Amino acid sequence: MRLLQGRRIESAEKNELYEEKKSVTYKEQDALKVAEYLDKIKDIPPDTIAYIDETGIDRYIYRQRAWSLRGTPVYGKVSGRKYRRTGIAAVLIRGVLAAPMRYDGTMDGELFEAWFRDFLCPEVAVRQHDNNGQRVVPSQEES
Length: 143
Known about the structure:
The chain is of the alpha+beta class. Helices cover about 20% and strands about 25% of the residues. The strands form 2 sheets. Strands 3-4-5 form a 3-stranded antiparallel sheet. Strands 1-2 form a two-stranded antiparallel ribbon. The longest helix is centred in the C-terminal third of the chain and has 20 residues, at about 110-130. The radius of gyration is 23 Å and the shape is flat. The model is unreliable at about 1-10 and about 130-143 (pLDDT under 50).
């Protein structure tokens, strides 16, 4: 339970005075395209798929939302200064995190291609084949 302006509340859903937090999804996401993609990859063995992702961490953190009585706006101030952003790119292959790269700023096409060429390709080549051309599955200890 939390105290909010001297009142006890057990759940935002149970109390009509307080608004529920919003969930974020991508407005560009197309359910039909997602279904088509999942249909295309359904016969590919999951252990042969590499999942690539990148994320950014802002060094300046502030609360974007606040609780208030319904209809009562909450105002706040944030700094106008520019803060450094750190990014991380990596791939998940057979449940093992590989080819991690930390960078400053935001990911663009040129940086992605450099990561792909300089970090991911060498990692996949080493993990996929030994000297005899035999397939090698990375162990959990390698990461």
